[in-house]
Design goal:
mainly beta; six-stranded antiparallel barrel; 1 helix; 56% strand
Length: 94
C-alpha cells in the first residue's frame, strides 16, 4: 500500500450520534492496489471518553476546522489508556 498523506486534528466525538467529548487524532492514509483509500492511526483523549468510544456502536469524529464528520472503527482499549488505535475508510478525505 502507498502512503498518501497524514490527517491530524482535534474535534468533537460522537458516540452513537450523541456528543461525547473532544479528542485529537492522527491518521495515516494509504491507497491499496485497487485504488481504495484506508486510514490507520490513533486517537488521543481522556480515558473516560476513549472508554465510551470503545463501547459504542457507531463512532464519528469531526474536524474542528470544517465540522465534517468521518466514521472510525476502534481497536483494543484498556481502562486508563489515553490513546486508542483506529481505522477509517476513504470518507476522511475531503
Amino acid at each position: 500500500m502507498e502512503r498518501i498523506r497524514t490527517v491530524t486534528g482535534t474535534g468533537p466525538v460522537y458516540v452513537d450520534d450523541t456528543a461525547a467529548g473532544h479528542c485529537a487524532f492522527e491518521i495515516n492514509l494509504y491507497r491499496d492496489g485497487r485504488g481504495h483509500i484506508v486510514g490507520h492511526g490513533h486517537v488521543m483523549g481522556d480515558s473516560l471518553l476513549l472508554g465510551k468510544m470503545a463501547r459504542g456502536q457507531h463512532i464519528e469524529v469531526a474536524s474542528q476546522d470544517d465540522g465534517r464528520r468521518f466514521s472510525l472503527a476502534t481497536g483494543a482499549w484498556n481502562p486508563g489508556d489515553r490513546t486508542m488505535d483506529v481505522e477509517t475508510a476513504g470518507n476522511i478525505v475531503h
